[in-house]
Specification:
The chain is an alpha+beta fold and 493 residues long. The protein has helices spanning 3-46, 48-68, 74-88, 121-133, 180-227, 241-291, 298-326, 338-347, 350-356, 374-391, 449-459; strands at residues 90-98, 101-108, 137-142, 153-161, 167-175, 334-337, 359-363, 369-372, 397-405, 408-415, 463-469, 473-483. Bound molecules: adenosine-5'-diphosphate (ADP).
Length: 493
């Protein structure tokens, strides 16, 4: 797939996702609103009649309970009947049965279209008898064509025993279907509720999707700039915590990308510079020697040899570093006398230090052994001592100290040079990092020394570091576990 196609695909996917969030939110809210509306419709409209009927029937029972306790007190009975009749919007008649003759003892007629007050004495008696047959309670539902097309009345008859020995019959008549006006009001209200909820869902999904999507769209724009190599792209969250966290993470990633990019550029520049310098020298001197026979001197040949050696050294360092970083060069652990090995390394500097009047001091103390890769550790010592010699001050002195504490041996290499500024210290272990940015390769190391040191010591799990005071000098150190003969089993790393 070519670049344009990929770019197009990415944009297509991203826009699909953004619209997805808004529509998904809207869809979810609409589903929720529909659920709410269904519940409201179910209770307020579809099941209204049965709810109404049940509550009316409950009202009949409550009225009967109230009446049953005041059957002996005719005044109280009349008051209760009127009060309940008004409360429940029903007509009530109470009869006392005396020798099969029904004598009305309380009555309340509050409803238009009531059957109870239009029934003949025989019909009333029939209702009473039905109730008696039925265990004391009888309910008859009747529709009244004169009142409303869907009107339904219920006559509730209950026989109860009075304290005075007589039987009483309580008859109630009430409408079982809510008034059409109430139904109309509820339906109209339902319409309004539906409109308000749908509009609310739309507004809510719009504002929520804006809240979620706006920072995402902003960040995606910045990400596209970053993808094109614009490291000035800044990610802004805003709105909510997750977006802020994402923006912080992306800003961090952008910073790291920028650092990596400039490091890589610097690395390529340095490597090519470092390879080119000795090659130019070799080429230059060889040409001079070819063209001018008198220049064919041992000194010039030596320069060519020296430069070739530097080139070899540089290539070897690069290879070492890449092997350490790739993890292909693993430490081969062996137990060896660190003190003696360091002393041997320093011995090799003797000729150089004598001729250049450098002073290399070693304060060793007791001999200690460690379990490590000897070659690698000695390379660390070399690199640190080389640097110290390169950077030491006027007194041309380098001090190597060995100290043992808490089962660890520390090798410190101290010089009296210019020291390293605090802000540079974290970076000197990076490849090709130079404090002064002046290319001193012709005089000093390959620029890879400390990164090799770092790689080796980290592969050993060793502690290392530098203490430096600007103007006074630096002390590079590393620490390894001391091992004693007989009490050590080689560690596997
Ligand atoms: P090189 O010494 O070849 O530049 P290194 O990786 O060995 O590369 O060191 C990295 C940088 O750390 C050096 O360029 C120098 O700025 C700083 N540095 C290393 N050792 C010392 C030291 N002993 N004193 C002062 N600066 C040092």
């Amino acid at each position: 797939m070519n670049k344009e196609a990929l770019e197009g695909r990415r944009i297509e996917i991203s826009s699909r996702r953004v619209s997805g969030v808004s529509w998904r939110l809207f869809g979810t809210l609409i589903i929720f609103v529909s659920l709410v509306l269904t519940v409201i419709w179910l209770f307020q409209i579809a099941l209204l009649n049965s709810f109404y009927e049940n509550s009316k029937l409950d009202g009949f029972n409550d009225t009967n309970d109230m009446i049953s306790v005041c059957l002996d007190d005719s005044e109280e009975l009349k008051k209760t009947v009127i009060a309940r009749s008004l409360d429940t919007d029903s007509c009530i008649r109470v009869f006392r049965i005396d020798n099969k003759i029904a004598v009305e003892v309380a009555d309340s007629d509050v409803r238009y279209g009531c059957f109870l007050h239009h029934l003949s004495s025989d019909a009333l008696l029939q209702l009473y008898e039905k109730a008696e047959e039925n265990g004391g309670v009888f309910i008859r539902k009747l529709s009244n064509p004169n009142v409303e097309s869907n009107s339904l009345n219920s006559i509730h008859v209950e026989v109860m025993q009075g304290g005075d020995g007589y039987k009483y019959v309580v008859m109630q008549d009430s409408e079982l279907i809510p008034l059409q006006a109430t139904v109309d009001t509820l339906e109209r209200q339902f319409g309004w509720i539906m409109c308000i909820l749908i509009m609310g869902a739309f507004a809510l999904s719009l504002s929520l999707s804006r809240l979620i999507c706006t920072p995402m769209e902003r960040m995606s724009r910045s990400a596209k700039r970053l993808a094109k190599g614009d490291y000035g792209a800044h990610f802004e969250g805003g709105g909510y915590r997750e977006a802020e966290e994402l923006a912080d993470a992306l800003n961090y990633a952008a910073e790291e990308l920028q650092k990596n990019d400039s490091l890589q550029k610097e690395l390529v520049a340095n490597i090519s510079h470092d390879l080119r310098t000795p090659l130019t020298m070799i080429k230059g001197y060889s040409e001079v020697m070819r063209d001018i026979p008198e220049e064919n001197t041992p000194e010039n040949v030596q320069i060519i040899i020296d430069e070739a050696e530097r080139l070899t050294e540089l290539v070897n360092d690069m290879l070492d570093l890449s092997k350490i970083r790739a993890g292909t060069r693993k430490p081969e652990l062996e137990m060896f006398d660190l003190t003696e090995s360091v002393r041997a390394v320093l011995g090799r500097y003797e000729k150089f230090t004598e001729s250049q009047s450098y002073v290399v001091l070693f304060e060793g103390g007791e001999n200690v052994s460690v379990m490590a890769d000897r070659t690698m550790i000695l390379q660390v010592v070399y690199n640190l001592v080389n640097n110290a010699l390169n950077y030491t001050g006027e007194d041309k002195t380098v001090r190597i100290t060995q100290s043992v504490k808490n089962g660890k041996v520390r090798i410190s290499v101290t010089d009296s040079g210019e020291g390293i500024a605090k802000e540079d210290i974290p970076y000197i272990w990076d490849r090709y990092y130079k404090v002064d940015k002046v290319h001193k390769r012709a005089v000093v190391g390959t620029g890879l020394g400390l990164s090799i040191v770092k790689g080796i010591l980290e592969s050993h799990g060793a502690t290392y570091g530098v203490e430096s005071v600007v103007g006074e000098g630096s002390t590079f150190y590393f620490e390894l576990d001391v091992v004693y003969d007989g009490d050590f089993e080689p560690k596997k790393r």
